[in-house]
Write a structure and sequence with these properties.
The chain is of the alpha/beta class and 451 residues long. Among the domains are: 177 residues, 3-Layer(aba) Sandwich (Rossmann fold), CATH 3.40.50.2300; 125 residues, Rossmann fold. It contains 15 helices and 13 strands. Strands 2-1-3-4-5 form a 5-stranded parallel beta sheet, sandwiched between helices. Helix 3 crosses helix 13, helix 3 packs across helix 14 and helix 14 crosses helix 15.
């Protein structure tokens, strides 16, 4: 998963999308292209006919990172299949005809984006999931409506680029959420560890900035751990001598598991751990990992898996997602990547319905950018698309904690699994916001196909 996560858009990475960092670095160095393709901005009705809409995607289906990105297409397919089974949108079937593979390579990403725009003439690109979205500027300049994982800077500020949960990212701004967590567990001294690559370091710089902003002392930090981590016992010894009772890690899940093992062996079994990678029921269910993950906190940007059974009326989008995956993708395990595909497709269809039967690309983009409290039917905190290409005044996230073989929601507010924070406040202790319009669990608005 990638260090440029969108789980906390305004303060660093969150619990999602941590890509193996040294792989990312090598891909970025080896695959860059300086070519300046000629892309037309005309074609507002490309891929559009009286009875269908032709759609493409670009994701990492092959290469070293497939597990983190390829399932996005499963979610897109399940959503489109459900819509098509109900007659499509204004009588048009959604044809996901060009789900392309960039092999996790920036130069191939550019080539495939060119194909989507100039050769296949798709109406929209739905389901972008790649560590190096090098073709983003081509889609932005061609004004092609684009939907997917916003884990790269190229999603902002273009009005036709729609990342799941918003398109703006800032990885070094103070991460309020981690400071809030430290306060909740009564930690006053923290340790922070990261790999020696920019994606990991940037994530943890936001963590450090957030802790310091709200008065949590960072008594130990190591942002230079070689990847992959082999032995963290020396770091653990220094964490122990520093007196830290809280540790935040911006490593991948294998590094985090090693950290937890060394903390237990080093005499710190009860230190509070916050990982930016590892929210995966399959990983937690592995008996080797369960004890090492027990008690660890994670931050996610969507409603947690499980709300479809514990509170289905408040989070109907999750119920619809699981039902559609079981029906249309029965051999696929629901995952965060698949959920991103589902939410990408939902926003696209929500925009199509709002734009009307005589839709064009421009009308679709304009319709979505009028949405002020989009939640994908309870899957997301409210997204205000009038401003979410360039920033926001608040941030809403969900904390979960590994307890045995389950992830349990923590610190929700106002009947919701989400906790919202002002990005402009320095108040200590941190006081979560109340009354956020459209907050799932209170009211639901925006999106969601009917099952």
């Amino acid at each position: 998963m990638t260090f440029l996560s969108r789980a906390s858009r305004f303060g660093a990475v969150g619990a999602r999308n941590l890509l193996v960092p040294f792989v990312v670095g090598s891909l970025m160095l080896s695959g860059c292209s300086n070519a300046k393709p000629s892309i037309t901005t005309s074609g507002g009705s490309n891929g559009l006919s009286a009875n269908q809409i032709v759609i493409g995607g670009v994701a990492s289906l092959t290469g070293p990172l497939t597990a983190d990105f390829a399932p996005i297409y499963d979610g897109v397919n399940a959503y489109f299949d459900q819509v098509n089974a109900s007659g499509g949108v204004y009588g048009r079937q959604l044809k996901f005809q060009y789900p392309l593979d960039d092999a996790s390579d920036p130069s191939q990403d550019i080539d495939q984006v060119r194909n989507l725009i100039s050769n296949f003439h798709v109406f929209a690109v739905v389901g972008v999931a790649t560590p190096n979205f090098a073709g983003a500027s081509l889609l932005a300049n061609a004004q092609v409506p684009t939907f997917g994982m916003a884990i790269n800077p190229g999603w902002s500020p273009s009005p036709n680029m729609f990342g799941v949960g918003g398109s703006y990212t800032s990885f070094s701004a103070p991460q309020t959420e981690v400071a809030f967590l430290a306060e909740q567990v009564h930690a006053t001294k923290a340790a922070v560890v990261a790999y020696n690559v920019s994606q990991s370091q940037q994530g943890c710089q936001g963590v450090i900035n957030g802790l310091k902003k709200f008065g949590i002392s960072v008594v130990f930090q190591d942002l230079g751990i070689p990847a992959p981590a082999i032995d963290l016992s020396a770091d653990v010894a220094r964490i122990k001598s520093s007196g830290a009772t809280f540790v935040a890690s911006c490593m991948d899940v294998s590094g985090n598991l090693l950290l937890s093992q060394d903390l237990h062996q080093g005499g710190l079994p009860n230190i509070t751990q916050y990982w930016l990678d590892g929210y995966d029921p399959a990983i937690l269910a592995n008996s080797t990992n369960t004890s090492l993950m027990d008690g660890v906190y994670f931050l996610i940007s969507h409603a947690p898996f499980g709300v479809e059974t514990t509170n289905p009326s408040a989070y109907p989008g999750m119920v619809q997602f699981f039902n559609a995956m079981a029906k249309y993708e029965p051999n696929v395990q629901p995952s965060e990547a698949a959920l991103d595909g589902w939410m990408s497709a939902d926003l696209f269809v929500t925009g199509l319905k709002a734009a009307g039967k005589d839709v064009t690309r421009a009308k679709l983009v304009a319709a979505i950018n009028k949405l002020t409290s989009y939640t994908a039917n309870g899957l997301l905190p409210p997204v205000n698309w009038r401003i979410s290409h360039t920033g926001n005044g608040s941030d809403c996230q969900a904390f979960v904690q590994a307890v045995g073989t389950q992830f349990v929601s923590r610190f929700g507010s106002g009947g919701s699994v989400f906790t919202c924070y002002s990005l402009n406040s320095s108040q200590v202790p941190i006081v979560p916001l109340n009354g956020v319009p459209g907050l799932p669990g209170l009211t639901n608005s925006g999106g969601g196909s009917k099952s």
